Amino acid sequence: DLHLSIRRQRQMCIRDRNLPDASDFSDSDLDAFVATQKDMAGIQKKYSQKLQANQDKPKKAMEVQQEAQQKMVEAVQDNGLELEKYNQIVRLAQYDADFRASLQAKL
To answer: Which residues 6+ apart lie within 8 Å of 100 measured at CB?
Structure first.
């Protein structure tokens, strides 16, 4: 069956990249990830405006960027995820279209 063959190839590619399997994540992990993504959108919007306002002040812009990164880390942790697990979900979503679609459906 061609569909099965394509799926098997995709799974092999995912394993080759040393990525986790979608089954490694619980529903609560994925719900926390989705909540974090929603928080991230707000953080990115807020801080992109601050960055634009400071684009002619490199030192201040760097401080704003560092603050934004800290807020993103806090968003991950505040939603009950470890940073490593959050990053694993992001990486898997980049390479696995089915997994990415399931996350987008939750958003």
So the answer is: 93, 94
Alpha-carbon dihedral 34, 35, 38, 39, rounded to 10 degrees: -140
Q: What is the pTM of this model?
A: 0.79
- Residues 84/64, Cβ–Cβ less than 8 Å: no
**Token pair belonging to 77:** 């942790």
Residue 45 in contact with residue 58, Cβ under 8 Å?
no
Give CA 25 to chain center in angstroms.
14
Whole-number Å distance between alpha carbons of 8 and 14: 10
- Please provide residue 96's backbone torsions phi and psi, each rounded to the nearest 5 degrees: -120, 105
Six token digits for residue 81? 């995820």
Nearest CA to 67 out of 50, 42, 86 is that of 50
The highest-confidence range among 50-54, 73-77, 93-97, by mean pLDDT, is 73-77
